Amino acid sequence: MSAAAWELAVAAGRKAGAFYTPESLVRLMVELVEPVSGTIYEPTIGSGGLVLSDDRLVAALRDGTIHLVGQEMDPLVREATIASFAGMEIPVDLGDRAADTLVDDRHPDLRADIVLANPPFNVKGWAVDPADPRWRWGSPTSRNANTAWLQHVAYHLAPNGVAVVVMPNGSLSSGDRADVAIRRGMVEEGIIRAIVTLPAKLFRSTSVPVCIWVLAGANRAHPDGVVLYDLPAAHGKINRAQVALSDHDIAEVVAVVSSGTLPTGPDAMVPLERLRDAEWILAPGRYHAMRDAAGTADAATDRIVDLVNQLRGQLVRSREMDDRMIAGLGRLVASNGIQVVPTPTPPTPIDRGAGRRQAMLPGIEEAA
In degrees to the nearest 10, what's the CA dihedral of 351, 356, 359, 363? Predict the structure, then answer.
């Protein structure tokens, strides 16, 4: 590959938003899937930075303890990644060609022992195939691909496999009917082992609050509930604008996920009945008291987001009912030969506070 092509590939990776996963977050992800062995799958591999930033994974790849499989949609980035791994004498299987993982899965028969994923957040307008076998708990919405990524990862897990997926916090409480049904199915089958919400400022590329989903293969499923935990602060600091998870932070999260017990003593496992009563919202702040003022503020923010997402879902369902009612009335009128003179639509009043409200709630779109 020429130097110019390499630079284009790197730029494309950055533009795709999947170029960089913080090293401290990668260390946490690896700790949660240990011991590392077998096949490891990264569905949005990009330049391979997630895997290559952890010395344990690199050592395991070099000695053949693990075999890396991935997929990348940009041909230039894919070529650069293959060349990079070849230069390090690390074998990697990126499928037969570049393709969008969600709409053209190039590893349909893969069942991996480990899946590590930091997919692009909140992808809209993607081409959903309702008949795709990956959608075990229902066809995801084209309005947001977050639950599609989660189902894709679960589909590719071996029976004894484990996965860690980075997601925006909105994935925990989206009120979209399809998202709620998918969360419900995953919880009831015991696929979700744990969810941990992470502190702000971990990523230098986004301010969107993030969490990790720890998923289990069929043989590790536990349908009794989900471990939910909010890590209120990161105790490592990179600079004024970015923080990092300290060794203590990582050990704390691993201990909570492994034991199902919060650092303060109570049970971190939220039972199925409580999750059902909360309409399958999985935000930890809804169930556990936070440990400090920052955590309390985060919980309040999460609660506001939960309520807004629920309202959006209710508005969508209300519009669907209105459409069905209008269609029924139209059929009734037509069957009786009645002609209806349409009423002029009044002008829409200008809501001068809409922009201000949107600024107060970044990342939350008003219902269309």
Answer: -20
